[in-house]
Structure formats: structure tokens, C-alpha cells
């Protein structure tokens, strides 16, 4: 066994062993990288250099701002207004509250960009509300957690910023635009699944549709939805960079939450900022440690070896595309979202581009695959949050989620094999 192969075994073997032993992911990434560098005889000052290099990026400055914006808007009384708007749009249908849940997640996702925040904020309101109206608790929870993944696709999503940086300077504005149609497609597929189940179980309808009520709720919710316009229009129109637009959106979110919706006082703002720091510390530590891991992978030529191994297995582009999705889905079962993006993108993106998948399209594929991973045990954080809110066993929630997994997989396959779903809007507007 040569030194290069031994170092790869040390890196990947120790990493997956620590994942199996349920080490925190940041520790697993950092320690496996240290073991690899020691095995190669490198100077450990490389660790500090690569950690600083990993987070020393102008593009990544947008991530803290987007997370702060989501925390402010999510705690500032936005949820109830978006639920009312969604109810005015689709509440009249059979299984209306399930449809409201899905549409509200689309709206809220454009503000928070986080599936966990979506589930925690909307789920705490909608799950008890749906149960009171006669919906089964496990069905209500399944709808909530699966629809929360729309927020990962609908801009502004900080995970897309992380992907754009990791992939090597892809346009953040184009990625933002690319998420709208896939997010809407995911919402539509979940609504179809919910409708079929609602008809079968005879879940109730809501009030009749009223244009007057819809316009009234839209006027109330406009201030929340305008935050998304600031970011997307500013970035796509070239008025701001992603970082600048995110900073402006934070100030706007603060003003809306405190002075317009009055869901936060200044004491509440400090509490929210404290929560933001907790989230940011986790994200930035992951980015820093993943930078060391990525450095080791590059030095050992693991991306090239993986690409060669996969393409030697088959050169059929359809099989390769399915294999890429399968790899990401399996990783999603054992790792959280940000580490998958940071570690898997340098390895899998060259394979994707070699079979004609555009980097922007692949970004949407990665984000949706990771979103599905958030709903699968044993590391499904959104699944755990939904189960805790509903006070239901995780196994029962997973069983109720099975039809919605199918809806999400169908959406993923359409995004994979119909490039226009992701690329049409960026090509027209970017």
C-alpha cells in the first residue's frame, strides 16, 4: 500500500467511523483531517491556514446576514400573516389546511431560507390547528416537514450561497432565480399528494375563495414578501452584490419586525440576535473545518479518483445522473446539509458537468437531495423537530411521510432530467 492510499484510508476511514459513533460533524471533519495530515507528515500549521482561508471569502459574508434576516423575520410576527395569505389562496380546497401549510412554507421559505426554521415556526401553529380541524397528527406533521424543504430552494437561501462559493464562483443571482420553479414544482407535487390523501380520508374544506379577502391578506403580508424582492431583484439586477443585498435585507427585516408588524421589541431583538450567533457559530465552524477536509481531498486527488471510479462503472449519462442522486441521498441520511455541500460538491460537480449537467442545475439537485436527507433518519434534524412539535414517535411520522417522499423523488427526477426547470428563468432574466 502506497503512502497516498494509506492517507486516503486514514482520512475517510476515521471520518466515517466518527460519524458512525455520532461525533459532532465538525469534530469528525476536523479530526479526520488532522489524522490524515499527520499520516502524511505535514506541518499542522496547515490546519490554521486552511480554516482561515475557508471562511475568508467575500461571498460567504452573505451567509450570516441571510441567517440573521431569517431569524428576525421568523420571530417578528410574520408566520401568522403568511398563513392567513396562504389560507386565502388555497384554503378552499379539499384538505385546505394541508394546502395552506404547503403554500405558507413557500412564502415563508423566501424569508427564512431554512427548513428547520420553517418547521419550528409554522409547524408550532399549523400542526395543532390541523389536528383541531380533524386532520391526523402524523399526516399534519408529514405535510409540515416535507413542505419546509421548499424554503431551501426558494431564495434567498444561504445554502445556495455556500454551494456557489464551494463550486467556484457560480453566480449567486442565477442560483437564486433557478430555485423558484423547482420550489413551485415541489409545492405542486406535495399538494397533489396531499389532495389525494385528503379525498381518501375525507379531510375538510375551508371557506369559499374570496378575491377581496385575498387582496386584503396580500396587502398585510406585502411588507414581509418585499424582503425577498430586495434580495432577488437587487442581486439579479446588478444593483447589489449578494452580500450587500443581504445586509440591506437585515436592516429592512429589523424595521418591519419592530415598527410595522411590532412582533419584536428591542429586548426581543437582542434575544433573536443571540439565537443567530448560536446558528452562525455552527455554520462557520463547519465551513472552516470542511475547508481542511477539502484541502486533504484535493491533495490526495480523491475527486479525480472518485470521478474515474464512477465513470468506469458506467458511461451512461442517465445511470450516472441517477448514481449522483443516490450518493447524495445516502449522504443525506448520515450527514447534515452544509457538510454535504462543502464536501461532496468538489467531488461530484466535475462528474455532473462531464455528462452535461449545468453547475446551476446541479446546485438545485444538491440542495433538494440534502433537503430530503433532512427528513430521513438517523440525522434528519427537520424530522426530529416535527416529531417533537407534534409529540409523536419518529417512526409514526416517517410512515406518514412515505407518500410525500415519493412526491419529492419525482420532483428530483424531473429537475435532474429536464434542465429547463432550473435553467429557464436564469437564462431569461439573469
Assembly type = single chain
What is the radius of gyration?
Answer: 22 Å
- Which overall shape is indicated by the principal axes computed on the Cα atoms? globular
In terms of DSSP E residues, the strand content is under 5%
Helix fraction, binned, reads: over 70%
Major beta-sheet overview: none
Number of domains: 1
Extract low-pLDDT stretches. Answer: none
Distance between the ends: 50 Å
Helix and strand sequence: HHHHHHHHHHHHHHHHHHHHH
Give a verbal description of the structure.
- The chain has one domain (60-283, 302-429).
- Helices cover 81% and strands 0% of the residues.
- The chain has helices at residues 3-20, 25-40, 45-55, 62-75, 78-90, 96-112, 115-132, 137-147, 150-153, 158-166, 172-201, 211-236, 242-260, 266-299, 302-313, 317-334, 337-354, 359-373, 381-390, 394-417, 420-429.
- The chain is globular and about 70 Å long.
Question: Nutshell version of this structure?
Answer:
With 430 residues, the chain is mainly α. 81% of the residues lie in helices and 0% in strands. 51% of the residues are buried.
Set down the secondary structure blueprint.
Blueprint: H1 3-20, H2 25-40, H3 45-55, H4 62-75, H5 78-90, H6 96-112, H7 115-132, H8 137-147, H9 150-153, H10 158-166, H11 172-201, H12 211-236, H13 242-260, H14 266-299, H15 302-313, H16 317-334, H17 337-354, H18 359-373, H19 381-390, H20 394-417, H21 420-429
Helix pairs in contact: 1-2, 2-14, 3-14, 4-10, 4-13, 4-14, 5-6, 5-12, 6-7, 6-8, 6-11, 7-8, 7-19, 8-19, 8-20, 10-17, 11-18, 11-20, 11-21, 12-13, 14-17, 15-17, 16-17, 16-18, 16-20, 17-18, 18-20
Amino acid at each position: 500500500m502506497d503512502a497516498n492510499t494509506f492517507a486516503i484510508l486514514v482520512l475517510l476511514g476515521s471520518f466515517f467511523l466518527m460519524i458512525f459513533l455520532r461525533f459532532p460533524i465538525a469534530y469528525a471533519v476536523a479530526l479526520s483531517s488532522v489524522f490524515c495530515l499527520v499520516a502524511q507528515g505535514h506541518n499542522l500549521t496547515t490546519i490554521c491556514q486552511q480554516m482561515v482561508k475557508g471562511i475568508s471569502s467575500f461571498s460567504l459574508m452573505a451567509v450570516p446576514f441571510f441567517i440573521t434576516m431569517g431569524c428576525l423575520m421568523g420571530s417578528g410576527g410574520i408566520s401568522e400573516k403568511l398563513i392567513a395569505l396562504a389560507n386565502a389562496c388555497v384554503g378552499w380546497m379539499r384538505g385546505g389546511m394541508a394546502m395552506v401549510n404547503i403554500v405558507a412554507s413557500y412564502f415563508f421559505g423566501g424569508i427564512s431560507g431554512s427548513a428547520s426554521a420553517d418547521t419550528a415556526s409554522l409547524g408550532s401553529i399549523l400542526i395543532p390547528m390541523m389536528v383541531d380541524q380533524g386532520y391526523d397528527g402524523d399526516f399534519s406533521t408529514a405535510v409540515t416537514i416535507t413542505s419546509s424543504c421548499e424554503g431551501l430552494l426558494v431564495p434567498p437561501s444561504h445554502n445556495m450561497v455556500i454551494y456557489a462559493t464551494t463550486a467556484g464562483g457560480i453566480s449567486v443571482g442565477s442560483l437564486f432565480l433557478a430555485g423558484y420553479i423547482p420550489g413551485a414544482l415541489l409545492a405542486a407535487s406535495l399538494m397533489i399528494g396531499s389532495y389525494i390523501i385528503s379525498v381518501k380520508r375525507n379531510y375538510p374544506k375551508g371557506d369559499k375563495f374570496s378575491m377581496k379577502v385575498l387582496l386584503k391578506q396580500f396587502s398585510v403580508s406585502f411588507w414581509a414578501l418585499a424582503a425577498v424582492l430586495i434580495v432577488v431583484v437587487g442581486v439579479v439586477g446588478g444593483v447589489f452584490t449578494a452580500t450587500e443585498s443581504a445586509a440591506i435585507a437585515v436592516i429592512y427585516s429589523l424595521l418591519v419586525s419592530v415598527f410595522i408588524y411590532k412582533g419584536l421589541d428591542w429586548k426581543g431583538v437582542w434575544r433573536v440576535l443571540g439565537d443567530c450567533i448560536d446558528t452562525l457559530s455552527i455554520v462557520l465552524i463547519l465551513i472552516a473545518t470542511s475547508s481542511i477536509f477539502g484541502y486533504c481531498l484535493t491533495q490526495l486527488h480523491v475527486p479525480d479518483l472518485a470521478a474515474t471510479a464512477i465513470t468506469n462503472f458506467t458511461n451512461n449519462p442517465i445511470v450516472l445522473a441517477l448514481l449522483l442522486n443516490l450518493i447524495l441521498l445516502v449522504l443525506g441520511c448520515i450527514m447534515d446539509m452544509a457538510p454535504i455541500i462543502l464536501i461532496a460538491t468538489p467531488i461530484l460537480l466535475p462528474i455532473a458537468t462531464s455528462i452535461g449537467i449545468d453547475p446551476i442545475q446541479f446546485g438545485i439537485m444538491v440542495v433538494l437531495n440534502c433537503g430530503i436527507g433532512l427528513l430521513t433518519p438517523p440525522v434528519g434534524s427537520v424530522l426530529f423537530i416535527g416529531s417533537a412539535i407534534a409529540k409523536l414517535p419518529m417512526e409514526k411520522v416517517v410512515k406518514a411521510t412515505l407518500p410525500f417522499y415519493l412526491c419529492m423523488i419525482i420532483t428530483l427526477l424531473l429537475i435532474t432530467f429536464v434542465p429547463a426547470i432550473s435553467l429557464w428563468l436564469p437564462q431569461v432574466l439573469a
